[in-house]
Specification:
Blueprint lengths: L2 H8 L6 H31 L5 H23 L4 H25 L4 H65 L3 H14 L2 H9 L21 H8 L1 H31 L3 H33 L2 H21 L3 H25 L6 H32 L4 H30 L24
Helix pairs in contact: 2-5, 2-6, 2-7, 2-10, 3-5, 3-13, 4-5, 4-6, 5-10, 5-12, 5-13, 8-9, 8-13, 9-12, 9-13, 9-14, 10-12, 11-12, 11-14
Amino acid sequence: MSRSYLRELVGLRPGEGVPALLAGTMFFCLMTSYFILKPVRDEMGIAGGVENLPHLYLFTLGSMLAIAPLFGWASRGRDREVFLPLVYRFFAVNLVGFYLALQFAPASERWLGRVFFVWVSVFDLFCLSLFWGFMADGLGYRRGRRIFGVIAVGGTAGAVFGASLTDLLVAQLGRLPLLLVSLGFLEVAVRHVRPLSTRLRRYAADQPRPPAAATMPRDSAWSGISLVLRSRYLQAVCGYLVLYSLSSTFIYLAQATIVAAAEAGRTGRTQLLARIEIWVQTATLLTQLVITGRVMRRFGAGLLLATLPVITALGFAVLGRWPGFNALVAVQVLRRTLNYALVKPARESLYTPLTAASQYRAKSFIDTFVYRGGDAVGALTYDALIGVGLGLSPIAFGAVPVCLAWALLALHLGRRQRALAAGAVSLDPAVVAVAPPVEPTIAGR
């Protein structure tokens, strides 16, 4: 099978294969690291009491509020080749600390488990947000539409591999050594930053940004909030993410309740949670390999973004009619497969027409504070509805019209993205978006 045929199959153009491979491999390692930890985190959350999970969401939001200004200050003017490894290795040191604390102070595992739950949520959002900001900055709008789907395949393969490692190793090694296994993959991801950045610099002449875009913008720590407040486009992105977080939190809390009732042993719970991840990510990988690249090249972000709320509305209708374990797992697998395979790459592509400041500062604020704020609101809302005596069925039926409004917002976002990419800056004066130059057409395409 020739290289040209492979490029044609995945929609790449000459010169894009190596950057796509490096980015996909880096994302594979990041997702392997995270999905080794995710079932361990979820089990620790259940062990600390399902009724306490809404409070952990609040602690996560509080952590984001505390960390975001520090993150903004630390990143000011730093070269991304320096800053990204610093962030990832900081989290690696944290993993060593958790391992030692849990290993030598087992009596404190209950409260340490709650701290670990919050920490993994912070780790997930900051590390993945930085990675996608790195990609949006380096690839731009047109290349991003082609290459993001390829990169996402690498991440999904990493998610399958990470969850599978947890499923296979937790019974043999226990839960704590998995933290060190995760650390190893995080370090391998760090080793990809420099060669990938070198490759992306070769695209600088094609990008609608000055060469200084290779460094983190020198805005204030609060500039992400300022950018969002001045931009209707970014506010719409925030609205989409909040509605996604609300629906995800409802389903997650229902899943935690069901898993806690279905499996009493901690190792068994960890394996069950890991297997749910394996089902989701395997279905995602198959979808990505077959249709993601073609769909992303053919359809705009708006249509792809709208599929998730429509499927979620149908899923809530199913849960309202048959509120049980099998239905919930089926909805989880379908919904998360769609999100990872199609919607996540489309959502990340929303930032490609924007300035480097928006891609780092605003994106970081949205992916951390706004995302976790939606989680916290969803957790408190779910807790309040359960507290007044509502069950899963009426909650699910009540979520359906909200999901339909969410779909309309997605279509609006797609229209605004196309306008910004075409250079219609008057639509959004607070976000200085410049249309990428038209790339040369390759004969025979």
